[in-house]
Amino acid sequence: MNANSASPAAVSEPQVLAARLRLRAALLKRIRAWLAAFIIGLVLSGLTAFPLPWEVSILAGTLRWPFLAGLARSSGLTGWIDLVLSALLENQARFPFLAYGTDWLAFAHLVIASAFVGPWRDPVRNRFVIEWAMLACAGVFPLALICGPLRGIPLGWRLIDCCFGALGVLPLLLVRRDILRLEALESQAQ
Question: Which residue of 27, 95, 164, 179 shows the fewest CB atoms closer than 10 Å?
Fold first, then answer.
């Protein structure tokens, strides 16, 4: 073996650079895929806050389908949804201004979704948005478990609300993990 030949285990600088670029691209792709899913979820959640009476009337009708009716009735879900629909329709007829509150709720979801444009563009610099959103997901639990009983919300429904916080934080944890990897990769390159 002569002095000019490289050992088989040696990796050239261009190969290391190419591997880092591939890893960076893969991390960005995964971060953006999870962010896209999260943004779409927020937008859909926001948009569904506008037509509540129409949506709840569809749900009430669906719960009366033969294969769902027995379970929905015995679990109390039919009674609860009927009560919610009745309240929405009465508010719509007598107090339409109350729907303005859910309009703002919808708008807030859309604004929050737009906050994720920052992490989409520069995940490392905007990691705080992800961490803020993780805190917001954690805040779902005390809100649902403290305010829910005060508003007469059944326990099952409060637990469903808690699932939004639990399920919402999962993609955010994955995004944060990948942002930390991306940050470490970028600091190695310097």
Answer: 95
CB 51 within 8 A of CB 121: no
Angle at CA of residue 91, ends 59 and 44, nearest 5°: 45
Q: Who's near 20: CB < 8 A, 6+ residues apart?
A: 185, 188, 189
State both tokens at 65. 């389908």
pLDDT tens track for 42-67: 999 999 999 999 999 999 999 999 99
pTM of the predicted protein model? 0.85
- How many residues are given for the chain? 190
Measured CA to CA, the distance from residue 80 to residue 157 in angstroms comes to 10
Q: Which residues does 125 contact at the CB level (< 8 Å), separation at least 6?
A: 118
Pick the closest to residue 112 from 45, 29, 33 (CA basis). Answer: 45
Q: Which of 4-13, 35-44, 54-63, 152-161 has the lowest mean pLDDT?
A: 4-13
Cα-Cα-Cα-Cα dihedral of 84, 163, 43, 115, to 10°? 130
Compute the distance between CA of residue 113 and CA of residue 125 in angstroms, rounded to an integer: 18
3-class secondary-structure state, position 50: coil
DSSP string, 77-137: HHHHHHHHHHHHHHHHHH-GGGHHHHHHHHHHHHHHHHHTHHHHH-TTTTHHHHHHHHHHH
Of the candidates 36, 37, 85, the residue with the CA atom closest to the CA atom of residue 57:
85
